[in-house]
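tool_call: predict_structure(chain=1)
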Amino acid sequence: MQEFNEGHLRGAIHLADYDIPAKHKLVLPNKNQTVIVYCQNGGRSKKAYKKLKKLGYTDVYNLCGGLENM
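tool_result:
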């Protein structure tokens, strides 16, 4: 959460990759909505991307390289 508070994209919702199994239905109820995952350098967001795809989310993208690459 500290990283999110230090800076994030406008409109972003914080959902840590380790919270996805327990909180995905509450935070992302529509499995067909567009979801873009990112983190500082892309490592954790890659894990989040894989978890969301496995849970059936259909329109998920990972910001390769994270915020450092922008």
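agent: The chain has a mean pLDDT of 93. Proceeding to next step.
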